[in-house]
Amino acid sequence: MNRLSKTLEGIIAQTTFDTTRQGRLSALKDRLMLALIGYKGSMARILLERNIEPWRLFQIAVRLDNSVDVYNNIERLNAVEFYGGYIEHLRAKYNNKEGLITSIDAMIDIISDSHTLTSKAFNLYDVTESDIIKWASK
Q1: Which of 16, 21, 47, 94 is the most exposed place for a label (fewest CB within 10 A)?
Q2: 67-to-4, 35, 61, 82, 90 alpha-carbon distances in Å
Q3: DSSP assignment letter at 99
Q4: 25, 56 in Cβ contact below 8 A?
Q5: Distant-in-sequence, close-in-space partners of 25: CB < 8 Å, separation ≥ 6
């Protein structure tokens, strides 16, 4: 079974703590994406900084940040259960991947989910799942 990188583990743990403390119950994948691109040492952020203009990355983050708190999903989720299940989802999805599961893998997974605010925000700025995969394979 593949392991998560220490950076990704730390980001998920911090996001779980923050969303639980703040009582956030929706848009949990999108909150994780904000944490992934907000953490300057994450491979996801580094990949985006190398491949898109700074203003686009800034606008994506602002759009997500403004959207997650007004997003009113009927489904209310416990952050601890959700992120625990999400870790298992990543492990199952990337079961055959060599090496660690990284923040780039999580970013690709979140962007590929068309139900997320992340997917919509990235599409508005012409950044697709295919772009991320192409950039990551360089």
Answers
A1: 21
A2: 28, 14, 10, 19, 24
A3: S
A4: no
A5: 76, 77, 78, 79
The stretch 5-23 carries a mean pLDDT of 94
8 Å CB contact between 36 and 103: yes
Both tokens of 29, joined, read: 């994948």
Q: Which phi and psi angles does 28 have, rounded to 5°?
A: -70, -35
**Rounded to the nearest 10 degrees, what angle do helices 54-68 and 117-124 cross at?**
150
pTM: 0.92
Cβ neighbours of residue 83 closer than 8 Å, sequence gap 6 or more: 12, 15, 16, 28, 32
Amino acid at 131: D
**Dist. CA 50–CA 56, nearest whole Å:** 12
pLDDT higher than threshold 70 for residue 111: yes
Collect all residues with Cβ–Cβ distance below 8 Å to 69 and sequence separation of at least 6. none
